[in-house]
Amino acid sequence: MTERAEAIFFELFEGLPRQGPGSAACTERAFGLCQDLPSAPRVLDLGCGAGAQTLDLVRLGAGSVVAVDGHAPLVARLRERVVELGLEGRVEARVGDMAALERPPLDLAPESFDLVWSEGALYNLGLPAALAVCRRMSKPGGCLAFSEAVWHSADPPEEVREVFAEYPGMGTEQDVRALLEREGWDTLGSFGLSDAAWWDEFYAPMEARLEEMRERYAGDAEALEILRELAREPAMHRRHGATYGYTFFIARRP
Q1: Least confident of 4-18, 21-35, 157-171
Q2: Are 140 and 211 in contact (CB under 8 A)?
Q3: What is the DSSP letter of 94?
Q4: What does DSSP assign to residue 153?
Q5: Over the Cα atoms of the chain, what is R_g?
Q6: pLDDT-above-90 percentage for the chain
Q7: CATH superfamily of 19-194+243-252
């Protein structure tokens, strides 16, 4: 990705309410499948983005949330919302690397969280490596909840395969369940994200922002070409969304 393309990419995604498919309803359903949590669990939200689900977790009963993301402007947005809502004592939004949680500047203690949460972000590490990170952070008996891209078709269209080529480890729901078992997790449940989680919460705002940006960059051929490429994602999902999707997985460390 060129420097210009990266800048426009972040301009698009920083302005969205969510940086990936999801919804308050899906977060609530996944949280409800977590078993034997304390009354005010300590939660680690990995790849929090602008923190829509972080704030939902507080509403659902999290005692405290440490929310981590590598992109500082998104963390800044979450910090602003935390102050607006008076949640400074319950939400700590921090910039850092998911692969280096125990090292500076994060310095998070292993086995210190009742619930590790991640919506659409663990793929950045590759799922096996990410599950190892989550296990180190989870207390024995603690829960893990994450959403992950999965195949719904054994033969997706070439266009779809090209888009997901950067994620060669992507599998089916059954593949992820098998991996959880191999990595020592007890699966408590899983469910696919609803159409509303894709369109109402993510792609509709994205397409509206793309249109705003096209108007702003009118006459800038390079920017318009970058926006055209970014618009391929929702268009592809409209055509081929039945062949892939996001599934929420809920598991517990024995």
Answers
A1: 157-171
A2: no
A3: E
A4: -
A5: 18
A6: 97
A7: Vaccinia Virus protein VP39 (3.40.50.150)
Could you tell me which of 71, 16, 7 has the C-alpha nearest to residue 209? 16
SS3 67: strand
How many residues comprise the chain?
254
Picking from 250, 146, 246, the residue whose alpha carbon sits closest to that of residue 199 is: 246
Q: What is the pLDDT of residues 127-169, one digit of tens each?
A: 999 999 999 999 999 999 999 999 999 999 999 999 999 888 8
**119: which strand partners?**
147
Q: How many CB atoms lie within 10 A of CB 107?
A: 11
Write the DSSP assignment of 218-254 as a string of letters.
TT-HHHHHHHHHHHHHHHHHHHHGGGEEEEEEEEE--
| Tally of CB atoms within 10 A around 214 | 15
Sheet containing strand 186-192, edge to edge, reads 91-95, 64-69, 42-46, 113-119, 138-151, 244-252, 186-192
Angle between helix 72-84 and helix 52-60 axes, rounded to 10 deg? 40
Q: Domain segments of the chain: what residues?
A: 19-194+243-252
Rounded to whole angstroms, the Cα distance separating 17 from 122 reads 19
Q: What DSSP element (H or E) covers 179?
A: helix 173-182
